[in-house]
Design goal:
37% of the residues lie in helices and 20% in strands. It has 278 residues and is of the alpha/beta class. A hairpin with a 5-residue loop joins β7 and β8.
């Protein structure tokens, strides 16, 4: 919690400095590698701009420039890049890759998104909540939608550490028939191991963690948050039509916002969002 609070305080100070037109020098003379296996708009732009604003030099490495664990091992990549760069950001599929970079490189590693986690997005969201609500402790935060994707995971971990009243609102599961005629059930709740980990943290911070499929959970919410229902890389997976149908009742709309009973409820979305897509 202390580290997150420090990062939020630093972020607020840097944001104010930028608004005032003050050029920073915290990264003066530093070279930062930006590894992107997945496409990105906000994450790539924010890391690049932040680096330049503080006097650093960002170097973009796309999926055709570097293939961790394919053309070269994660360990070798980490050891080579640490000799040239002062820090490495990674955005990709495998969480093991970002942890491998952190294990084998001696320079700072930033997780710009994996299939499991998206911590920098959470920091940005928590800063926004602090700006609007004055703090994080006791904030009732309801995440609705796909409850086992990287944003749900990241938000639950962050909320547990910061003493928030956190809710994942999602259907328990959906099912579809595969090409062999077999019925396949897919859970949309977070992994039990992660939920237990967050609840253990919550015991120490005063947070609460609720996992439910009951729409009534939005009542008295301070924040309603959602994400795409089909994550990057899942577009062509079987059963997506059935998933969307199961998630339809959990769509954020005016009816849901009004049900919170809070006229000042915040609605947040990490983007991208698909407007008018059914």
């Amino acid at each position: 919690p202390e580290e997150i609070a420090y990062l939020l305080e630093l972020s607020a100070a840097l944001k104010l400095k930028k608004k005032m037109g003050i050029k920073g020098d915290l990264l003066e003379g530093k070279n930062i590698a930006l590894i992107f296996e997945k496409p990105s708009t906000r994450t790539r732009c924010s890391f690049t701009v932040a680096c330049v604003d503080e006097g650093g030099h960002p170097e973009y490495l796309g999926k055709n420039d570097i293939q961790l664990g394919k053309k070269e091992s994660v360990a070798d990549t980490a050891r080579v890049l640490e000799r040239m760069f002062d820090g490495i950001e990674f955005r990709g599929f495998s969480h093991d890759h970002v942890e491998g970079l952190a294990k084998y490189a001696s320079v700072p590693i930033w997780n710009g998104l994996t299939d499991f986690d998206h911590p920098t997005q959470v920091l940005a969201d928590f800063l926004t909540i602090q700006e609007y609500l004055g703090g994080l402790g006791g904030v009732r935060f309801v995440y609705t939608g796909d409850g086992r994707n990287n944003m749900a995971n990241a938000l639950m971990i962050g909320a547990a550490k910061m003493g928030m009243d956190f809710v994942i609102l999602a259907p328990k599961s959906y099912s579809y028939t595969d090409e062999n005629g077999k019925n396949v059930a897919v859970s949309l709740f977070p992994e039990e191991e992660l939920t237990a980990y967050c609840r253990k943290i919550a015991e120490e911070t005063g947070a609460s963690i609720t996992i439910t499929d009951d729409i009534a959970a939005v009542e008295e919410a301070d924040v309603i948050y959602t994400d795409v229902w089909v994550s990057m890389g899942e577009e062509n997976n079987p059963g997506m039509k059935e998933r969307v149908a199961a998630l339809k009742p959990y769509q954020v709309n005016m009816e849901m916002l009004e049900r919170t009973g809070n006229p000042d409820v915040l609605f947040m979305h990490c983007l991208p969002a698909f407007h008018g897509a059914g």
